[in-house]
Amino acid sequence: MAVRLRQPLLAQVLLFISLTGALGFLEYSTLLALRFEEFAEVCTLLLFAWLAASTKVASFRNPYVFLPALGLVSFVLLYAYVFALRTGAPLLPSIFAQRYFVFVLLGPIVYLLSVRGWELADFRRVFILAMLTATAGYAAYDIILAPKSALLSGQFFVLQLGSSYLEAGGELRRLNAVNLFLLLYFGGRLFQARRLLPFASLVVAVSALLLAITIPRALLTSAVIALILYVIFLRRPGRAALTMIMLPLYIFVVALLTPDLRAAFIGAFSTDLSYEVRIVEVQKAWQVIREYPLLGFGQDSVQSLSYQDIFGHLYPADIGLLGVTFQFGLVGLALYLVFVAWLCTNLLRLVWAYAAADVSPRQRLFVWTLFIVCFMFLVASPLQARYIIPQGQGLPIGAVSWGLLMAYRHGLISTRTATQDVSLPLSPTPTSV
């Protein structure tokens, strides 16, 4: 008999723990022994297993539930085997090294909770609370426990340079996407609700302060580009349709300007420490890709044999799309690009649908912020493949967005008065629980 979530407190708690762990809560140098991320991964598995076993719609014929789980297992086993084949390393450590990918199951979890009656507002509350907890947790750690406080140092715009980049900025850089999300969301809330003005102002100020310390150049540049592209080309369906018609011309113009852009990029960053590091990593990546183009080098493990053991201190796993190809080959690159393009396209349609709907401004703002951040990750992909690296926060954000899209396609979360021309096609209503 199906267990109904009439009191969804346990589901809320498990989802909250899963999200906070995925977003980097308590993953600080002096608190790693707590293993909160591993605890969050276990909570994700427990919540998925509970919902999948107790919801009638969760049959093996439902591709939105078990197909992601099957795909996840297949992906992990394949690239653990590939690495073992390339290096002779044992298989099991490489499997455990990919445990972070369990947060992919947040997508089916969101869908199953929608089947049980959760609305967009329920997910928004848990999601925003998890982000606030991750940011507040770092602020408390930095002020109370950190060997050297970044917030109280009075030093801004410096952690991206020199030894301090390696020593003091690791934990904070992991929260860059979280802080940017909170900055966009609560920045919008400042114009929506006067009663939230003090709290929203505080969140905006703290988020901006944390970003000002590290100045994630690639992330901030991608955010600006994403916002400009949205305002000029994607804000309305008509503009987007015209953009698609003109896309070949835009690509041609960018191709013509590529040599000049490359020269400007080299001139701006050639003296930067990170630029020299990237050059070495790119050279190593191309050597591997030429030798193993289809499936790449596979997934390493620090418990047995790591990339650092093989390639030295500068290893090419975290250099954007080239790093994805190095690690997972052309197959992994194709999967990454197809998923990201599908996600951003359908999130944009969801933004249009909510813009035309009679819904709470908070819901519109939440969906819009999800799209902008996911689109920002897409723009940043040539330099940072944030949807797949553990420090990028793209995996949990993308998985939650994917789950909301699956729920919307099945009419489980709806825009009551959305016009038909901008809404996503709806499938038949799933089996009731």
UniProtKB/TrEMBL annotation:
Keywords linked to the UniProt accession: Membrane, Transmembrane, Transmembrane helix
One Pfam family of this chain: Wzy_C
Domain of life: Bacteria
Major location (coarse): membrane
Transmembrane helix is among the record's keywords: yes
Domain O-antigen ligase-related: 203-337
Membrane spanning residue stretches: 65-84, 96-114, 126-144, 204-233, 240-258, 319-344, 365-383
Protein name, UniProt field: O-antigen ligase-related domain-containing protein
Organism name: uncultured Rubrobacteraceae bacterium
